[in-house]
Amino acid sequence: MSTKSTIAVVPTYNAEHLISKRVKELLQSSFQMIVICDDQSSDGTPEVASAQTDERVAHVLGDRNVGPGGNRNRVLQIREDVDCDYLLFVDSDCRVIYEGDLADVVEESLEDPELGVVGFGILDRDGSPMKWNYGSLMHPVHEAADQKLELLMNQKLIAKEQFIIGARSRAESYRMVAEKQPKEVGWVAEGCFAIRASLFKKLGGFDEAMRFHEAHDLSARLRDLGYKTVFNPIDLVQHLEHDSRMSRRSEDEIAAKLHYFKKHWGMSQTVFRHLFDLE
């Protein structure tokens, strides 16, 4: 029997029809606790979360909307006497399809002390591997048009060395081939991933200034501490594509990308806006 312990975290927003299903699925595994984190939903989600009666289920109901990353951080608010080794985040719109014990999978996947984060296989609604399940960390070479990059290199606003490093991994932005073994990657999808609880606490969780691309930033900060991010191709969940961001999606993505490039690249807002035609 494992001496490690894992808490499952279910971040949710306006998904009252999904909460009970996720809790029922997760209760089939040996989690120490299942924590529902609600981002100030305007539907019946808080009531459904509060109505869960199993002693292993807890909930943290937000008094303001902080976005996906900030909502996941609410797991840090659970009482101090609750401690664990790992956290497994499973979005409320990700149906569990793995038939074994998810807690065992998490503990086995993070046995290597050099690993900080492990992402798991997520299937699309049609049962095929979800695109953008993992990838390389955000880089101008991935994100911008070739002619823009060439212009910025000519102006010495992007170094040639930076371009070369990014170009090698441009094609890895989403899953193109079936993986058989775990592989080191830049980031993994937030829908189903595990992290060492001590590291999540040390980092203070996700950067709440980012309502998009927050997984890139988390893995970049873990890399700076000497930890790896790995994708484990075992399929644990199926994404049901419940979109709660809707009209905010484009605005949040641009703002998060700018924040990331400022934070990790020292890129000015002027260069960013020119790079992505935002003048």
Describe the structure concisely for a colleague:
Helices cover 33% and strands 21% of the residues.
Q: How does this structure look, described?
A:
There is one protein chain. The chain is α/β, with parallel strands linked by helices. The protein has two domains: 6-133 and 174-244, Spore Coat Polysaccharide Biosynthesis Protein SpsA, Chain A (Alpha-Beta Complex), CATH 3.90.550; 140-172 and 247-279, no CATH class. Helix content is 33%, strand content 21%. The chain contains eleven helices and eleven strands. The strands form two sheets. Strands 1, 2, 3, 4, 5, 6, 8, 10 and 11 form a nine-stranded mixed sheet that branches. A two-stranded antiparallel sheet has the order 7-9. Strand 2, helix 2 and strand 3 form a beta-alpha-beta unit. The protein is globular. The relative contact order is 0.17.
Task: Give the topology, please.
Layout: E1 6-12, H1 19-26, E2 33-38, H2 45-50, E3 57-61, H3 67-72, E4 86-90, E5 94-96, H4 102-109, E6 115-123, E7 134-135, H5 140-143, H6 146-154, H7 160-167, E8 183-185, E9 187-188, E10 192-196, H8 197-203, H9 214-224, E11 228-239, H10 249-265, H11 269-275
Parallel strand pairs: 1-2, 1-4, 2-3, 6-11
Antiparallel strand pairs: 4-10, 5-11, 6-10, 7-9, 8-11
Strand content: 15-25%
Q: Give the uncertain stretches in residue-range form.
A: none
Number of helices: 11
> Would you list the SSEs in sequence order as H and E?
EHEHEHEEHEEHHHEEEHHEHH
Q: Say what the CATH topology of the largest domain is.
A: Spore Coat Polysaccharide Biosynthesis Protein SpsA, Chain A
SS-based class: alpha/beta
The gyration radius over C-alpha positions equals: 19 Å
Supply the number of structural domains.
Answer: 2
Main beta sheet strand tally, sense and closure: 9 strands, mixed
